[in-house]
Amino acid sequence: MQAWRQRIPLSLQFAALAFAYMLAAAALALLLSRWIERAWIAGFVAVALLAPLLAYHVRRAFAPMNSLFRALEGSVASYRDGDYAFGLSWRGGGDLGALVASHNALGDALRDQRLSLVQRELLLDTMVQNTPVAMLLVDPARRIVLGNIAARKLLGDGKRLEGHAFDELLESAPDALREAFERGGDGMFTVGDADSDNEDIYHLSRRQFRLNGRRHELVLLRQLTAELRRQEVQTWKKVIRVISHELNNSLAPIASLAHSGAELLRRGQHERLPAALSTIEERARHLEGFIRDYARFAKMPAPRLEPVPWPHFVAQLRAQVPFAYDGPDSPAAIARIDVAQLEQALINLLKNAHESGSKPDDVALSLRRLPEHWRIDVLDRGQGMNEAVLANALLPFYSTKRHGTGLGLALAREIAEAHGGRIALLNRDGGGLCVSLVLPA
User: Which residue intervals define the domain Histidine kinase in the entry (predicted)?
Assistant: First the structure.
């Protein structure tokens, strides 16, 4: 009966109901006129008596539509709460049928979109959680919103990091990682002891963005140890090829000129001997300098530590390379270093800073006393380093300069580690590079 009524338009239902009510009112008024003399009173009484019956039928006529509207209200509330599992049923046609069909189509579309979003979120979460790169999302209150599996292993002993204060987490992190964050920007740093083969090299990347109108920070820590070891093998192969090429380029003309000199002696043409001998000397000295530069890196002696006042050391350094200085001036600030080795390392770093495109006045050396270490920062305002260069900069013989040897930064790393310290490279906020050496006090 209900389904049959839904198929009849409401206008026809109301017309039939009004016609039936008018007939019933007329018949009742005619019947009442036998007892009531005035016709208008009889009509009024008839209408009053039939009014409850009319109200009942009108309510029944509107009941399906009212139920539909309540169902629409409930389903819209469910959509607002993110629940798209509801649908409506209306067997009638007309405008209400079209409304129900559109509403159900909207629910199906929202449900499909929600399912697709859930699947993509699951895929993204799986990728984020299983990537070897440690990822941390930090909110404006410096609380960790997200930490993947790699971040838990690196910073939380495998425990969940969400909800923890990021600054408190850094306090228990390795010193090199904490110092890298204090310097700001992207960079590379070393954790562990190189002498015991327990050394890990990391690249730090930090990005600011807005999420739900609030500024968040995404922190990425990528371990480069295995990659750098592989690249070191490739680099050494390249070095062997370069050395072999350089030796052949020098030894071949030396051998040829030596043979020619012997022939000149045999023929008595002594006047041409000085030119041949001069060329042999020039090639031999070039080869000597080439081998000496490479052997200096390969045969780095153990540092001979001695107490040296920092102001005296910095004054000697400034006599060779200009730079701005920010650090202690008191002779009581004592370092235990190998003066020649550290001077060589810092000269290379300061020359690199001057060649970076930085203004000479922006090249600076900063010295700070830490609880158990000295930190030396060589600063510039040049072009900095992109991620690829940062990842390879400390490799021996890697250079972006056309005529560079690729030994400056690698030599500084060897010297810092031989002193029991470490080196880190970080791009500075506002442009430029910071090369930081941390040495035991």
Answer: 242-441
Does residue 78 register a pLDDT over 50?
A: yes
> How does DSSP classify residue 89?
-
pLDDT of residue 100: 77
Q: 132 pLDDT exceeds 60?
A: yes
Q: What is the mean pLDDT of residues 148-161?
A: 88
Question: What are the helix and strand counts (H, E) for the chain?
Answer: 13, 12
The secondary element (H helix, E strand) that includes residue 415 is helix 408-418
Instruction: State the SS3 of 266-329.
Output: HHCCHHHHHHHHHHHHHHHHHHHHHHHHHHHHHCCCCCCCEEEEHHHHHHHHHCCCCCEEECCC
Structure pTM?
0.47
Indicate the CATH number of 131-223 among 3.40.50.1970, 3.90.550.10, 3.30.450.20, 3.30.300.20. 3.30.450.20
pLDDT beyond 60 at 427: yes
DSSP 143: B
Tokens encoding 241: 């090829």
Question: Measured on CA atoms in the order 154, 156, 158, 162, is the torsion positive or negative?
Answer: negative
- Strand ranges, E, within 150-259: 187-193, 198-211, 214-223
Q: What's the gap between Cα 424 and its chain centre?
A: 19
The CATH-assigned architecture of domain 306-440 is 2-Layer Sandwich (3.30)
What pLDDT does 2 receive? 45
- CA-CA distance, 163 to 66, in Å (whole number)? 48
Q: What is the CA radius of gyration of the chain?
A: 43
- For residue 362, what pLDDT is reported? 92
Token pair 């300069």: residue: 401
